[in-house]
Amino acid sequence: xxxxxxxxxPIYLQLRDRxxxxxxxxxxxxxxxxxxVRNISAEYQLNPITVSKAYQLLVESELAEKRRGLGMxxxxxxxxxxxxxEREQFLTVEWPALLQKIExxxxxxxxxxxxxxxxxxxxx
Length: 124
Description:
Elements: H1 11-24, H2 37-44, H3 48-60, E1 64-67, E2 71-74, H4 78-104, H5 109-122
Antiparallel strand pairs: 1-2
């Protein structure tokens, strides 16, 4: 799998976000081991310190834990905690900004719903 890194954000933050998304979408379950620092470093040609820094952020956020001699694991309750954080971020930061843009562009609710229905029918 090829990953393209975004130049506008440090790689360790992008890597952390990828792991967070894997937890949210269920490809990493609670109790699952994270891929080893060595494997991630080799697969994506990253400095092991970069990978370790991303994993440390997960530990600090209490979403992963290090088990001596075994590796890093997703903590029980991590998905629910992450969902709560992501919902709060969306409702307090992203949604108000999106709503302001909708109002600024004078897009009606009817227009939004019609566009959503049109896209849904295109995917069927």
